[in-house]
Amino acid sequence: MTGITDVRAGDLGPVEADPPVERFVLWPHRSLTTCGMIAILALLSTAAAALLLQAPALARLPVAAGAAVAIGGLAAAFWCNKRAGRRTETVEVRPDVVRILRVWPGGTSDSYDFATAWVRVELVDTYHTASTLRLRERGRSLRIGEFLSPAERTELATAMRRAIASARGTRGV
Amino acid sequence: MYLIFAMIGGIVGGLLSVGIRLELKEPGLQYFANPHMFNVFTTGHGLIMVFFMIMPSLFGGFGNWFAPLMIGAPDMAFPRMNNISFWLLPSALLLLLISLFVPGAGACDLGLLDPASRDLSGCGAGIGWTAYAPLSTTGHPGPAVDFAILSLHLAGASSILSSINFITTIFNMRAPGMTLHKMPLFCWSILITAFLLLLSLPVLAGAITMLLTDRNFGTTFFTASGGGDPLLFQHLFWFFGHPEVYIIILPGFGLVSHVIATFSRKPIFGYLGMAYAMVAIGVVGFVVWAHHMYTAGLSVNVQAYFVFATMVIAVPTGVKIFSWIATMWGGSLRFPTPMLFALGFVFLFTVGGVTGVMLANAGVDRVLHDTYYVVAHFHYTMSLGALFTLFAGWYYWFPKMSGYMYNEALGKLHFWLTFLGVNLTFFPQHFLGLAGMPRRYADYPDAFAGWNLVSSYGSLLSSVGTLVFFLGIAAAFARKQPAGDNPWGAGATTLEWTLSSPPPFHCFETLPKISDDRHH
């Protein structure tokens, strides 16, 4: 890895007009809906309010402050986790170019292009370390699917290798 | 890291308890310069064992390691927040340890510059883990109590951050198909514990902040002459303190369910009943706090309510005990070390539960309040109960965590030494309590000498058991016998056993999709 830097959004090559051979859209899995989050927070707030009503008047303010921090913290954590779940990565494999479109939770996006003929898909899965999936080409590389589990990365790597091989065949090189 | 930290906390807290038992081995003062030092030891022992041993191991250690694995999440929702939660704990423990060496109730000179001037008579906070005012305010003018309070603040902040992390992870990052009703009971127990912490810790934080301002900023929340109420602190403390008992033991409930099911080679009996029994224990645990205060002048009607509410808790607890027994009934039972510790827990918790039902009676509690009967009761439930679940979990998951198999003979020796040791320590304390021996005293009349001697020998036997535990760890790492992915065979059905041992940092070789109707 030494001496190899990640590709930046400005390093874009020319856009090819060929239709994609395959397209992968990646996003983090979340198991709770927004309604569920609201329900949990409402339940917790109601419980805290009920507990506060039992507290003597003298102690209500300090206890309420602590409860507000705790429940507010949970609400913030839910929000952050949900927001992080909005991140997506789209991988388009075309005959000439493999394009990665990364959309951040805030709505901003970055795009990265690799030449289909040269790009390699590298899955590094060392025992005791997190696996990483990289696209590598001519001394530059890009990490993708960071929010996926190793199993999903493995699946993605296999599918991308197949799609890239197929795209190279389409181009007739 | 949580588990290693808990071991350090356990060694420090355990040594303090050995000090206490050595002092109580015979009437009169043997080792301590004065009774205050004895109280400092009991305070340190209680706080360290609760906040720096049991909670970091069961909730922090096993929770962080196995809850994400069991729900099929790659990791906790907020790994950095997890890191902060952990590093707050050593800081908190350091503050608590500092409190042992600064002035508390009086003069304190460690004699570092001039050994001749050494005076330890007023060092440390001798306020008990309950820190009742006015003992913790006017009774301890030195900074030791302030250090202890700040330590609790940090430990509380750590627990709140952990709770937020667990709730977010368990609700939001379960694998597809892992509905709440298919979730392993250990995850249920962690989730309920996280809710209990989130609701109860603000009360403790408020109470000790008020204590801090009473001590340092002239407020009078707990001073009657200034319009405050000393009983207010007791209410606030126990409003936190009683749910804290369940915070300590609930992860153990979840854990033991897995151990018993695995070594009975049967699914847990009454899964939903077990899950909702924990919910019920958590909910009812919030409305029984004043059973710790029967002698504080509550009206008869209030006492009657708390007697009733406290006894109600026996119902979901009984559901759990009987479900564990029903799980074993007709099962293909095996008795390796984790199962022995799980059965030991069921026995100890049942003994503690029975004495708890007795103490729930306000009339009986009048006689037994603040005696060694209470000490025996709460050690059987939240101390020994939690400790045995902790060891059950340790031996159950050690092959998964380390990749190595532990030495079964040493494990069983550890169990029997500990089981005999703790029973020898605490069972005689029932007799001492019934005979009227009060707790929190360094000395006692000769009439109590016999059972105290037995109790102290039991403590030493438990210490030998602890040495065998560490020997077992060293032997496992020296022998390096590979454990395999699932050393327990067909009975171990939860997701962590589908992974390699030890699991990689980010977890699943094949993404778990839970389509099976069976629960775990």
Write the layout of secondary structure elements.
The complex is a heterodimer of chains A (173) and B (520).
Chain A: E1 5-6, E2 22-26, H1 34-54, H2 57-84, E3 88-93, E4 97-103, E5 109-115, E6 120-124, E7 132-137, E8 140-144, H3 150-171
Helix pairs in contact in A: 1-2
Chain B: H1 2-23, H2 35-71, H3 79-99, H4 144-172, H5 185-216, H6 230-264, H7 271-284, H8 300-312, H9 314-328, H10 337-360, H11 362-368, H12 372-402, H13 408-434, H14 449-479
Note down, in words, how this protein is organized.
The complex is a heterodimer of chains A (173) and B (520). Chain A is α+β, with helices and mostly antiparallel strands and 173 residues long. Chain A folds into two domains: 4-29 and 87-170, PH-domain like; 34-84. Chain A has three helices and eight strands, in the order E-E-H-H-E-E-E-E-E-E-H. Chain A has a four-stranded mixed sheet with strand order 1-8-7-6, covered by helices on one side. A four-stranded antiparallel sheet of chain A has the order 2-3-4-5, covered by helices on one side. Chain B has 520 residues and is an all-alpha fold. Chain B is globular.
In this structure, how is the largest beta sheet of chain B organized?
Answer: none
Number of helices of chain A: 3
How much is the average pLDDT of chain A? 79
Count of helical regions of chain B = 14
Secondary structure: number of strands of chain A: 8
Rg of chain B, please? Answer: 23 Å
Residue-averaged pLDDT of chain B: 86
Q: What order do the strands of the largest sheet of chain A run in, or round the barrel if closed? A: 1-8-7-6
User: End-to-end span of chain B in angstroms?
Assistant: 27 Å
